[in-house]
Structures are given as C-alpha cells and as structure tokens.
Write a structure and sequence with these properties.
mainly alpha, 4 helices
C-alpha cells in the first residue's frame, strides 16, 4: 500500500467503507430468508456475514482476509462515455 500515491483514486480504495449494490428480486428474497434464519435485523450485517461464510467455505480457513480484494474494481474496464468528466463534476 505504501507504493500508492495520495490521490482521490487511492482514497476511494482505502477510505470508502460503503458498497452500493443493485440487487435482483431473487437476491432480495434470498437475503430476507437468510436474515430470518440467522435472526439478523440489518441487511448490511446479513450481507457481511453471508460473505464471510462463503469466503470461509471456499478457502477452508476460519478467518478470511479481504485485503487482497483491494483495488480489484479498478481493473474493470472504464465506460467509453463517462457521465462525469472529473471528480469535481461528479460531486458538484
């Protein structure tokens, strides 16, 4: 992480703690079922717990370190015609 420069892009990687999801009706139904079966009242906590369980099952480890996922979203192709030309335009 020390190789990263302090830019807005770096801040997105290290500082943002919120993830917005567009979910399908099927996902919503499955999430509600999961929440009821595990007696979880908050959707965000249910998603975190389900993700931890899935990662644990896939690796066989008790704890999973998600830090290896940092920056993966930046490898996705960028939009050809972005909505905003700059971060200033995005946040204004």
């Amino acid at each position: 992480m020390s190789a990263l420069r302090y830019t807005a892009q770096t801040c997105k990687i290290t500082c943002m703690k919120q993830l917005n999801l567009n979910v399908t009706a099927e996902f919503e139904r499955d999430l509600q079922t999961y929440m009821k079966s595990h007696k979880i009242s908050q959707r965000s906590e249910a998603i975190r717990q389900a993700l931890r369980e899935a990662a644990t099952r896939s690796t066989g480890e008790e704890e999973y370190d998600f830090r290896s996922w940092l920056g993966l979203g930046l490898k996705a192709p960028l939009r050809r015609k972005p909505r905003f030309r700059s971060e200033d335009e995005l946040w204004s």
